[in-house]
């Protein structure tokens, strides 16, 4: 779909610790999906909900970004290779002017990315997005590299307000019962 928006992301390095199992657990998804773990990310009030299946190293995830208006995009991804923006394997939710959400994947190859559609380095199925009361939710199942459960994660909202990118580590094997 070309590059309907051009973004320049500035990196602000952050060394924050994720606190697991906060009140994100009270959120009810429109499809009544229940995820075993959730985390509020250190900025933008972004939330990631997931269930990890060790048997097939698949993670069912729901990335939820509150406070999004029409004609914005949101993105969350994992960087399998190293911390940082370049190389991030991202799920993107593009909110059109009429409020519909197109969800797709984008492999971020450089700092001037337009978040073009592309495949990722791991398989993704069931990706879809929705906008509910100002929350964009992007759902997907990620087939993670076998044996890997800890990745750098990256997320962002655009185009105007937050030219900011934070990377922090996501330990996807952490279970809800282990929090607190
Ligand atoms: C992975 O395993 C879970 C639990 O058995 C199952 O629900 C899910 O469909 C599987 N996913 C894939 C992509 O095979
Ligand atoms: C909303 O916009 C999208 C993207 O431009 C378009 O594909 C879709 O058909 C529109 N939906 C409605 C209900 O107008
Ligand atoms: C991820 O969390 C699990 C469960 O708490 C722990 O056993 C494992 O060592 C952690 N891995 C990393 C890389 O932090
Ligand atoms: C490129 C980049 O942003 N790297 C940083 C990501 O965050 C980790 C710590 O969480 C740093 O070690 C990296 O330098």
Considering the chains and any ligands shown, give keywords for the structure.
single chain; 180 residues; mainly beta; Immunoglobulin-like; five-stranded antiparallel sheet; 10 strands; disordered N terminus; disordered C terminus; binds 2-acetamido-2-deoxy-beta-D-glucopyranose; AIR12_DOMON; DOMON_domain
Write down the CATH topology: Immunoglobulin-like
Q: Biggest β-sheet: count, sense, barrel?
A: 5 strands, antiparallel
Tally of structural domains: 1
CATH class category name: Mainly Beta
How would you summarize the topology of this molecule?
Layout: E1 37-40, E2 47-53, E3 58-65, E4 73-79, E5 89-95, E6 101-107, E7 124-132, E8 135-143, E9 150-158, E10 166-171
Antiparallel strand pairs: 1-2, 2-3, 3-8, 4-5, 4-9, 5-6, 7-8, 9-10
The structure holds 2-acetamido-2-deoxy-beta-D-glucopyranose (4 copies).
One 2-acetamido-2-deoxy-beta-D-glucopyranose is lined by residues 53, 55-56, 58, 125, 141, 143.
């Amino acid at each position: 779909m070309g590059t309907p928006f051009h973004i320049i992301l500035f990196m602000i390095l952050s060394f924050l610790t994720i606190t697991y199992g906060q009140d994100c657990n009270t959120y009810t998804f429109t499809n009544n999906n229940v995820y075993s773990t959730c985390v509020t990310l250190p900025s933008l009030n972004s939330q990631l909900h997931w269930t990890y299946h060790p048997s097939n190293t698949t993670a069912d995830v729901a990335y939820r970004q509150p406070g999004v208006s029409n004609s914005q995009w949101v993105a969350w991804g994992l960087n399998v290779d190293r911390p940082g923006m370049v190389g991030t394997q991202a799920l993107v939710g593009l909110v059109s002017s009429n409020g519909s959400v197109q969800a797709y994947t984008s492999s971020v190859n450089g700092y001037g990315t337009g978040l073009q559609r592309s495949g990722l380095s791991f398989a993704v199925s069931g990706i879809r997005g929705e906008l509910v009361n100002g929350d964009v939710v992007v759902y997907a199942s990620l087939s993670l590299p076998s044996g890997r459960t800890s990745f750098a994660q990256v997320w962002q909202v655009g185009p105007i307000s937050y030219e900011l990118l934070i990377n922090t580590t996501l330990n996807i094997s952490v279970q809800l019962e282990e929090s607190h």
